[in-house]
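Running this now, will post back.
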Amino acid sequence: MIGILGGTFDPIHLGHLRPALEVQEALGLEALRFVPLRQAVHREAPYASGEDRLAMVQAAIAGERSFVADRRELDRSGGSYTLDTLGSMREELGADLPLCLLLGSDAFGGFLSWHRPLDILALAHLVVMTRPGVEDTWSPEIRALRRARQVASAAALSESPGGHIYYQRVTQLDISATAIRESIAAGRSPRFLVPDPVIEIIAQRGLYRDCV
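Update: finished.
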């Protein structure tokens, strides 16, 4: 099985990395691909360039053998749609390999507003990284989708290429990329929020100094 974690990663931080590692270990993923988006569709544009964000991802995951930086969205023009990314991965990896798209609880709550969400679910499993309380805010439609597609064990994910929803409890670190950028712009250190190699890139390239 291959895991996929997309995001702006502006910058990547420990709140991304620790849950990703826990999912990789719990599911026994062969690899987990970090996919920085190029052009945001439902959020404001990233502050750092795609190449800067990719460099930070590569620095953050260096040494973790199962983690891979995937630049395919940066090389594609137009908006970054998850459906296109999964379609590209299917062309590369084939139709039968199980793919697991990692989502936070908040993101899953809005999943049905994504571009062609059920087609996304046909291409991959959804692995929802859960935290207490978020489910109380979900719509009846997302609750119904959960009931229809949820499986109770990670082993069930390996039996089909996609289509299931699996809940994985992870350590939730209350770290915000927005707060990190604001801290850097104010001259404060982001140490212990992001990996040290990422701090070095931020300093060398002068990132986020004027982002507020």
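The domain at 2-175 is CATH 3.40.50.620 (Rossmann fold). More later if anyone needs it.
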